[in-house]
Here is the input.
Amino acid sequence: MEKQMLDYTLVPLGLLLMLGYHIWLLFRILKHPNKTVIGLNSLCRRYWVRAMMEDVSKNGVLSVQTMRNNIMAPSVLASACIMLCSVIAVLMSGKYGDRSVGMVFGDKTPLSISIKCLAILVCFLTSFFMNVQSIRYFSLASILINVPLKKIPPHCHNHLTVEYVGSIVNTGSYFWSLAQRAFYFSFPLFLWIFGPIPMFLSCIFLLLMLYLVDVSFRSGWPLGLSGLDEIHPTATGDGGALVV
Here is the structure.
């Protein structure tokens, strides 16, 4: 019973730490986008979309190749996720689903092992779904970014704008980031198979690594704030908001 109490305390604590960190990160992205890597990348993508659409005949090949490269990454990760889902499903349905690992210091009941495998399976399925959505938006953006705005009728120009195409590209990138988060989240759940202590320690290590890659420690822009203000004046500054 004392070993099972570790699962009831360390596992929820690790999950709450992960959830709390991402709530804090979402607040930073919405309120202070220039202090997070995701916010800075979002603004740079808008800058890039406007630069590509200024001269479609000259930049068309470059924009399509860039979108194709962005599609390849979620495609590979989606294939890996669905393959891992198949492996886990086979292990859960076969004879290995009833075996417990000898190094586990915690709950070793068959029910707990099934719950752990199911949690990992949910992470991979979520990552697969997010990758598919990312591919969908990047594929749409690869078409819209090459539309010649000067040849669009006036009554349609209000709907297809540079800001709209930029939001499509950013939405695909947001889904790609969510797919990566779901994939990262499977690491602590996988270590949960070996006990709640490795799972909790991996949550702490993962949070430290995510903080280093999520927070921008540099102030200012390499291209200059003035250039971004001309392109997207409402998205800079501490009070700027990201439009999806």
Q: What stands out?
A: Helices lie at 2-31, 37-54, 56-93, 110-144, 154-157, 162-191, 196-214, 225-231. Residues 88 and 121 are 7 Å apart (CA to CA). Residues 222-244 have pLDDT under 50 and may be disordered.
